[in-house]
Amino acid sequence: MCDALWFDPTEMLIGGTWKQAAETLPLINPSDGSPLADIARGQAPDIDAAVTAAHAARAGDWGRMTATERGRILTRIGQLVLTCVDALAEIEAHDVGKPLTQARADAVALARYMEFYGGAADKIMGETIPYLDGYTVYTLREPHGVTGHIVPWNYPMQIIGRSVGAALAMGNACVLKPAEEACLTALAFARICAEAGLPAGALNVVPGLGAEAGAALAGHPHVQHISFTGSVRTGALVQQAAGANVVPVTLELGGKSPQLVFDDADLDAALPFLVNAGIQNAGQTCSASSRILVQRGVYDEVRDRMAAAYTELTVGPAMDDLRVGPLISQRQKEIVTGFLTQGTDLSIAAQGHLQNAPDNGAYVLPTLFDNVPPDHSLARDEIFGPVQVLIPFDTEAEAIEIANSTDYGLVASIWTAHGARQMRLAKALRSGQIFINNYGAGGGVELPFGGIGKSGHGREKGFEALYGFSTLKTVAAHHG
Ligand code: NAD
After folding, report:
1. What pLDDT is recorded for position 6?
2. Distance between CA atoms of 420 and 232, rounded to whole angstroms?
3. 252 flagged as catalytic
């Protein structure tokens, strides 16, 4: 079955049937700029057909299934994904430019999401509520109905796992719009779901452009919830479109996540996290740690040790499985290079180096900037490339002020042995996730994840996501 996951991607899955798209879009291999495939260019009528098919699934086999049966199917999907980890990783490496080891980790995480939500499907319950004499009051957790999932290109498998997995567990029927830059594993996942026995129409996949298929899904009047992961600009548009239909939206947007390193930190433990959290997936991670705030007493040592690690970073084609692959596209390369140009007034502590990198690949050297003022654009704006800035600080209060000074609040980490300081900072930092003496960029299937401020709202991952993908009904029975 895993061999069959490489197939003609000009089709869309609607109501359990693979349908040829009227038009196609070219897909580029970012490692060398070569054409990879043509993909479906879904349009508003395709989204409309997918939404109709999803409603039919809700009214049919899928909607009638017990929570336990749904859970079994999700668990089976997870098991099939696990048998196809290598095939999925190879597809992702070609499509996203992700080094094979990182692509494999994404496939394993996808399996883990399906196992987690498969196990959770029949464990989400309502409550009974003490009320007036003569009444019994209870709550029912019910699916929204049809949920829309708009997914970016950076972690297709993980983001599909966390949002579609939780939505299906609650009994919703899903319409998935993967990114136009990378949609192959979304299609492969849909094949695996069918193989595992997911009823027709429970998951529909319509690739296409954001302004066409994406906008049609966000504004569709018969979709009851939208989960969006991507940029702040597009998130605001999606929220506006869904708002016109009074449809709830979960927004997982960008970040400028800091790691705070204090004088008493265990630097041997911190060092691998400080670097990896910035360069994993070539920095194209919403929860990448792009700001390293270091207390003055250990600043020089942290800079020198990070710089030494940077000079060892190899950059090249995804299939060579080096530390850093290409960016997703030439367009993304231009954006990141533009940011590097803004840093010409700064000093570079170190850069990585290319290794057998084809000229037409979208490569950018990992770059570590030294002693960056907290109000510099490189210290405030999300770059979405392998770029980190080092910022010195003196006091705890100054560290908190700098950490909280951007528009974002997705992830933060605190490196210190001081227990009371750990607790103080965990409260003081404005962020959806806090890590103490570790950094979990993107990880943690079990851990609720999401941002505050421009990083978005709503939570995915963990049990919390099941509340987001369901609605609560209160039943008050008067029996005297
Ligand atoms: P993007 O917002 O352009 O695209 C994301 C998705 O939205 C794609 O599927 C795209 O086709 C679709 N889309 C685009 N325009 C649309 C519209 N008008 N209506 C509906 N859908 C539309 O983002 P990108 O450039 O692909 O991704 C990079 C950004 O996403 C970065 O800022 C990054 O931080 C953020 N991101 C956040 C997370 C997270 O979990 N918080 C994860 C990945 C990426």
Report:
1. 79
2. 35
3. yes
